[in-house]
Amino acid sequence: MVRLLLSHARPELARLSAWLDEQERVLAMSERVAYAVRLCLEEAVANLIDHAPATSDIAVDLGWQGGVMVAAIEDRGPPFDPRMAPVRARPATLDDAMPGGLGIVLMRSFASDIDYQTASGCNRLTLRFSGVGPD
Amino acid sequence: MDMQVAEIAQGVARVVLKGRLDIQGAAKIDLEFSAVAGSRRGVVVDMSEVTFLASIGIRVLVLGAKALQRRGGSLVLLSPTPDVEQVLEVTGITDLLPIMRDEAAAVAAVTA
Q: What integer is the mean pLDDT of B29-42?
């Protein structure tokens, strides 16, 4: 697994994006996997930066495990298990469609599997991408 | 992210977006897109060269559609790539913003 450390600040999302450009090539991801990984990581990290207190850096790990692309995000903020978040209803109006929860919808759809663990003040969100994506 | 605007009918604009509509891309076009949506009665957004769409990009599109809707106008999306369309579909945006494949039909939809 390769690791990127990000400060708890919005401009760091540009650094995450550039790092993903490089890792897509180095790790030889298919376009489908690369899209899903980028989408889930950018949504997850943006959620942490926007909603969690800036208590520590955010670590992003990425690599293949047995033919499955695995991405993990570690932080030391208050625990938040996205698997437990209420399922957002499909928007009926444009007002309903404003983001706030869309990132979790996207992660649930584009990642093949989501795991979350918290221990000793450290939270780890693990996303697996089998290559099938949301189909 | 690059944005080009062309007038295709009275009060109707075709907006061509190119690149990633992620946080950086959304920040780059947000003001100009809002200005276009706030001053037209119809907008066709050509999504065929948008290579990536995140939730922040959806926000830009929805805000534009809301600005148009308030004045009785409308916004349609033209020819998104399959990955981008998947993002629009799973978030339910396709229920609210029509996706069209034919430019003439898209123009007709926002000029009706």
A: 97
